[in-house]
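Troubleshooting: if your tokenizer reports a length mismatch, compare against these two reference records.
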Amino acid sequence: MAVAERTRAREIRWGLPDVFIGVIFSWVAAVVVFFVVLAAVGLDTGGETGTGSYVGRYGLSDSMSQERSDPALPLWTLPVGQIGLWGGFALTTLVAGTLRGTGLRRDFGLSTKASDVPVGLLVGVFAQIAVVWLIYAPFQQFFDFDVSEAAREITDRAATGGDIALVMLGVVVGAPIFEELFFRGLALKAFERKWGPVMGVLASSVLFAAVHLQLLQFPALMVFGIIAALLVKRYKRLGPAIWAHIGFNLVAVINLIWLA
């Protein structure tokens, strides 16, 4: 091992504990920010005090397949519910890279090039249209289910252009940047350092899918996580994965809001 590589290895002090602490911290931040905002604007949660059920549906995971007894909240609460979560992801990765590592660019590949845009968008759109269909098509021959039903219940509330703009901003811009930074940056590298590249890709993808708290969409999210992780491995930076995530989410939002 070269002297520079040995020096860098000694400088890196982040690992799997940072990943799991980051997930917990981000969930707590999501709950706190979400309810602070609701209280500030005077919105009622319908008497539900269980943050897991309520924030899980409207903040952390968009929705969960439970019977809803609470009143429908305005659509703008969906991206607002993500602010704490994304802030937690960003802060955890920032602390790990700057205080416990050698920088976000060197440790986690936080960079992009112009060529990442077409490559990433093409991969993300293909994954949403073709790969997701291939995952669920065999099961839909035997079971009657709509994988987008939970999310559609929320996007059906889009009443104004401002609501739609906020959802687009959050889902198509916020999620790809902050989730890729955390899951394909910190988490992928931490799992990889502990268990090797194959387990790094698989474990970070499982975590990515699990954090969304969407059982029905878990397979598609995991497969996309693997695709995004392979892009990072191939190009040695987060840019292609971020643009793939943008394309993946953009197709989903367009389908839910305008085509459904």
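Reference record two:
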Amino acid sequence: MTRTRMTASERSTEVLAAATSAFAETGYAATKTDDIARRAGVSQPYVIRLFGTKQQLFLAVLDQVCGRIEELFRAGATTAPPDASPKDRLDCLGSYFGEHFLTDRDLPRVFLQGIAAASEPAIGANIRDHFGQLFNLAKELTGASVSEVRRFFGTGMLLIDLTALGVSDLACEGNPSWATEILTNLSEEGI
């Protein structure tokens, strides 16, 4: 059996995937580059050679996660009819985001880990920049007012929290009653 060598780009992609999973599980501070290397099947020095520091690797993961949110917002915007109101456009963004981001186990948790690690200057600057860009993108794509987009983001953050808590599926019979109540009211509002 012949083994094909991975390119540096392919290996980098594997390390990013392993880092995403590790940071989602244990956060920025508690995650060790040794653990990421093991998950990716490479050496710890190789991880450092690819990304420099653990912080640079975490920033690359955050860039990837926030880039995914941007992709989903742009794709969700295309699902709205041309004559849709700003609220209907936001609903299309939200639905698409829910179907493609909130169903991923790691991405919402990494996003929250980025917010949790915002006291680190470089991480805080990164996540604030991404958050602002996503807020402005939602306004641009939908034509919604600041207050409408603020409400949209508030609801989105609530759903990210519920996803991270493992109680975001309305069909799950094991949800606590408060989670079911929140999710029922959201679905009744069309969110």
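Descriptive notes for reference record two:
- Residues 54-77 form the longest helix (24 residues).
- The chain has a mean pLDDT of 91.
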